[in-house]
Amino acid sequence: GAVVSQHPSWVICKSGTSVKIECRSLDFQATTMFWYRQFPKQSLMLMATSNEGSKATYEQGVEKDKFLINHASLTLSTLTVTSAHPEDSSFYICSARGTSGRTEFFGPGTRLTVL
Amino acid sequence: GENVEQHPSTLSVQEGDSAVIKCTYSDSASNYFPWYKQELGKRPQLIIDIRSNVGEKKDQRIAVTLNKTAKHFSLHITETQPEDSAVYFCAASKAAGNKLTFGGGTRVLVKP
Lengths: 115, 112
Hints:
The complex is a heterodimer of chains A (115) and B (112).
Chain A: E1 4-7, E2 10-13, E3 19-25, E4 30-38, E5 45-51, E6 57-58, E7 67-73, E8 76-81, E9 90-98, E10 105-106, E11 110-114
Chain B: E1 4-7, E2 10-14, E3 19-25, E4 32-38, E5 45-51, E6 56-59, E7 62-67, E8 72-77, E9 86-92, E10 101-102, E11 106-111
Parallel strand pairs in B: 2-11
Antiparallel strand pairs in B: 1-3, 3-8, 4-5, 4-9, 6-7, 7-8, 9-10, 9-11
């Protein structure tokens, strides 16, 4: 199956700092990438949809100026959490969808802890 | 927008028994329904999916059924094994390229 990587796998940062998370499709071209947030024992909540070369589409209630998304190539999307606060601590997961199908392949996730 | 409800939230079964998880969706335009399995701290893994032109699909011990009229779909796991213990999520989406809407998840525990 298709492989999606995510980096870093975990990060601890101080309140007020920014954190960048990378999502890469390793063996296919991802025209669309999705960013999710998952709190403990909860479902995946879609934050935004990212299409290569265009602006991301954010879900209602997600601050686009706080969660910056860049999808500069068909294999890479980045999520930057700006001015992180403890309430931003969560498991952030990306997924990627190729040109040929509708299946989403998920990255391994990034656990963000903001002190 | 689409709303997906999933039941039960937790399910405990004895090894060898069957497990059934049910999901309902609200948008009749939805036509793609994947199921994901997520182990603790890991990524969701697609285990089976079904499209609206099919009523049932089976892959070894896993099967999914879809009732478009009632707008519900179910996951069936037969002969459960301890390694089936995980959280299972259903999801729904409309036309190709559309986002997935996930159910709340079912925590399945298979007791040896």
